[in-house]
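Question: does this match?
>
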Amino acid sequence: MNGNLSPQRYGRRRVIGVVVAVLAVVGAGVAVVVTRGRLDAGRERAATTTLPLSTVAVTRMDLSDTTSFDGSLAYTSPITLKGTGTGTITKLAEVGTVAQRGFPLYSVNDKPVPVFFGDTPLFRPVGRVGMSGSDVAMVASNLAALGLIQPSSTSDHGKVVWTTAMRAALGNFQAWVGLPVTRTLAVGDVIVLGAPLRVDTVVARTGDAVSTDLLTLTSQHKSITMLIDPAAARGITVGVAAAVTLGDGTIIPATFTSLSSATVPPPSDRTTGPSDADQKVTVTVEPDDDSTVTDVVDSPVRVSVTTRTRSNVLTVPVDALLGLREGGYALQTTDGTLVAVTLGMIAGDRVEISGPDVRDGLSVVTAA
C-alpha cells in the first residue's frame, strides 16, 4: 500500500457528518470507492484525537431503513347526505350506524328509505319492463347482491334492460323492508351510496322536510392521510406494512391502503409556478384492527415504515469510521492497522461495510 495514505487529521466526530452525506449518494446507487487492502500498520496510524476511544466488534446483522411521518388518526372528511323527494322525516339513524345494503338510514312518512350501493343515483322511476340504462343496472345489481335475482351477464351498464324477473324481485324486496309493493322505485325511495359509510353526525331532526341536509357520513374505518414528499414515498406501495405510534405511546400495526400521484397543494399566496419542492404525494394508512383505535379520534400519531432492508451484512457504528486523506474510509484495528472499507446502507447509528480484510468479529477502535 502507498505509505502516504493516512487518515484525516480532523478525527472521528467530523467523519460522522461526512459519512451521512456520502451515504445519501450511496443510497442513490452510486458506489463509494475507497482504497482497498491492508494499510501498513507501521507507518499509517490513527490521527491523534482528544476523544476517548474504545473498541467494538464488526457485527453481521440485518439493517433496515425506517422513515417516519406525522399524521392524525381520524375518519375521512364527512360528506353530507341530502334527502330527495317529498315528505316529512319520521326517523333518523344514530351516530355510528354503518350503512348496509337494503337497510334504512332514515324514514319518510313512516316509510323506511333503504340503502343501495352504486355509482349512479336514482334519477327517474325504475319499474317499466324494457327500460334500460345505468340506473336500471344499479337497481338490478343491488337486487342481485341481495340474492333476489341472478347477476346480469351484461358488462355494459347502459345496456342492462329491466325484465319481468327484476320487477318481481323488486316487489319482494319492497315487501321485505316494509314498503308498499308497487314494483317500481321512485326518486327518493332509496339512498344510493358509493360505499358502506358511517353516520358521523345527525344534522336534521324528525319533523323536518326530507329535502334538506340529513346526515354527515364518513368512512367506517379510521385512517391516517398524509401529504409527503415524493422522495420520501419511494419504497412505499399499497399493501406495505407500517407501525403507528399513538399519543399514549402504544404501537399498533397498520397498512398503506392508497398512494396518489404527486400533486401541488395550491397555497393562497402563490405568485409563481409550482416548483419541485411543492410536489406532494397523498398516502393513506389504515390500522389493521379497528378495535385498537376504538376510542382514538382526531389524534396526532407517528407512522413508521421500513423502506429498505439489507440482510446479513457486516456493520459497525458510524463513529468507528476514519476518513482517509486520499478519499474513502477505513477502520482502525486494535494494533493500529487501518483497514479500508466500502460503505453501504446506513441505519440509525450503524453502517454497512465491506472489504477483503473485513470479517465478522474483527475488533476495531471507535469513539466512546
User: Anything to note?
Assistant: Confidence is low (pLDDT under 50) at residues 1-6, 8-49. The first helix runs from residue 11 to 27. Residues 79-218 form one domain. The first strand starts at residue 53 and ends at 57.
